[in-house]
Structures are given as structure tokens and as C-alpha cells.
Amino acid sequence: MAYQLVIAALLLCGPAGLWAQYGQQVAFSVALKTDDQAAGDHGPFNTDTTLVFKRVVTNVGDGYDSNTGIFTAPVKGLYFVTFTGASGSEGGLNAAVMKDGVNQFAIYDNQNKFSSATNSMALQLDVGDKLWVTLWANQRLFDQSRLSTFSGFLISPLP
Questions:
Q1: 45, 36 Cβ separation under 8 angstroms
Q2: Of 20-24, 65-69, 132-136, the least confident
Q3: Within 10 Å of residue 121's Cβ, how many Cβ atoms?
Q4: Cα gap 13→10, rounded to integer Å
Q5: How many whole angstroms separate alpha carbon 131 and alpha carbon 97?
Q6: pLDDT tens track for 1-34
Q7: Which DSSP state fits 68?
């Protein structure tokens, strides 16, 4: 009888959905500015800068630290990670998602003003691996009502 419940759950939810029901769930979604902060540019800075996304929308599993801007993987697994950045009236946008100091993927936009770029990737993370967004030197990122966001979630755990 128990195996029939497992088979039914697999058919309804798929293996990842079944694991998510009974295992640890991990997801974060953050925006650069909080709701009470005025819209505007972040940067430019003279050096590469770790962005600290202050508006925490979701932080299941408590992996995101809003004081440092760093997500630390609490579970070994395959994660889906995405980053969207907007450029303001000054234009120019160039930033990257870093994993333990190594560029994993980036966004770039030189359409001058009021445009955006998005990139996403599935990343294999070990427990303790760290992800953050680096704004490259002399670049800007604009935010107003969650235009610039950083998000990720666990797709599937790995042994």
C-alpha cells in the first residue's frame, strides 16, 4: 500500500516535487532596494563591488544574508539561479553572478538608458558554496520596485 502512495506522488509531482515535499526546500528571491528606498542608480564604484540586495521577498532555508548579499547553499544540489539588472538614465550595465569568486554568468547592456538584461543558469552547488552578484567597476545598476533582482532555488538534491 505504501509503495502505491509513493508511485501516485511521483506521478502527480515528479521526483523533485516528491523530494521537496519531504526534504529540505531552498529558495531565495531578493531585490536591490527596499520598498522605502527611493528609486535610483547603485554605483558607479571605482572597484568591483558585491551588491547587497536589501529587499528580501523569499528566503526559504535561510541561505541568503541581506547584510552581505551572499547566498550560502545549505544543501548540496542542482540550483536554478537568475539575475536581472536594469539600467537607469545614465545607461551602462555590466555585472556577474559569482560562485566562490569565479564568474558563472553575467549580464551586459549598453543600450544607453532605461533598459534591462537577464541571464540564468543551472549550477551545481556543494554545501557552503557561496553565490553573489558583482557589479564591475564604473558600472551602474538601477532599481525601482524590484526591477533588479537575484533569485535561486534548489531543483534537486545531489548525493
A1: no
A2: 20-24
A3: 14
A4: 5
A5: 7
A6: 433 334 444 444 555 554 444 578 999 999 987 7
A7: T
